Amino acid sequence: MDIAIDRLVPHPANPNRMSEEIFNKLKGHIGRTGRYEAVVVRPLKSGLRDQVSGGGLADTGHLTPDTRYQILNGHHRLRALKELGHTTARCDVWEVDDAEALVLVATLNRLAGEDVPAKREALLAQLLGRFDLPRLADLVPESRDDLEELARSIAPPPVPEPAAPEDFEPVEFLTFALTPAQRLVVDEALKRTGLRDRAEALLAIAEAYELTRIHHRDTEDAENARRTEEAARGQGKKSTGAQKGPGFGC
Are 51 and 98 contacting, i.e. CB atoms less than 8 angstroms apart? Predict the structure, then answer.
């Protein structure tokens, strides 16, 4: 049932406390979805002695339109509803005496299972696949740092670059820029090669280019060696001439 928030009072013995970070997530969830677990309350009937402050119980009394209700479970949900501007709260009303109320206040917030760590991580991993990390950090109890650490731990390892084989040689790409007239000349030349198709003909051109490049390289190496040898011979002649300079007479 929905009860006016101003008729709900906290239980003075409530020991449960929530960090502001977690409370803000609870408040954000209620504000975003409008859904929350019903607040558990008990009626404070007229004729009961000072139940608000935890006094003793009398067996007489009845509910009235002004009856107040003491919260047994849901103090933080009520605070969130107040801050969000709600005037009523959805409540489950339990008829219990003082002793039972104290038992409920002591146990309702503690009667919960514990997460199996591996299953919790698997659940969060699924959520990371559906929400970006900053958004998920606003929705679940885990902190952003915890989620970032989890995201790093489940990220697939980087794929290493394939190593080049030891006998790998870099390739050279040939680009032919031809005018339409030059294209006709090349086409006629390719037809006269007797090769089966243009791909084979272009491969032959590439091989010829490679042979020409090797020839030029060998020629250049031989020319450099010849120049080095000539320079060495010239240096040797200068050294011999210096040793045969004019002598001193007696």
Answer: yes
Collapse the DSSP code of 64 into the 3-class scheme (helix H, G, I; strand E, B; otherwise coil) and give the result.
coil
Residue 195 buriedness (CB in 10 A; 0-12 / 13-18 / 19+): middle
Q: Does domain 2-107 have CATH number 3.90.1530.10?
A: yes
Render pLDDT for 155-209 as a digit per residue (tens, 0 to 9).
Answer: 877 777 777 666 666 666 666 676 777 677 777 776 666 655 666 666 666 666 6
C-alpha–C-alpha distance, residues 193 and 195, integer Å = 5
Distance CA 241, CA 221 (A): 31
Triad 201, 207, 209: Cα angle to 5°? 105
CA angle at residue 81 from 76 to 86, to 5 degrees? 160
Provide the token pair at 214: 């090797």
Task: Classify the C-alpha dihedral 43-49-50-54 as positive or negative.
Answer: negative
| Sheet with 2-4, side-by-side order of all strands | 2-4, 88-93, 39-44, 68-73, 8-9
Q: Where are the domains of the chain?
A: 2-107, 117-154, 180-236
Q: What are phi and psi of 57, to 5 degrees?
A: -110, 135
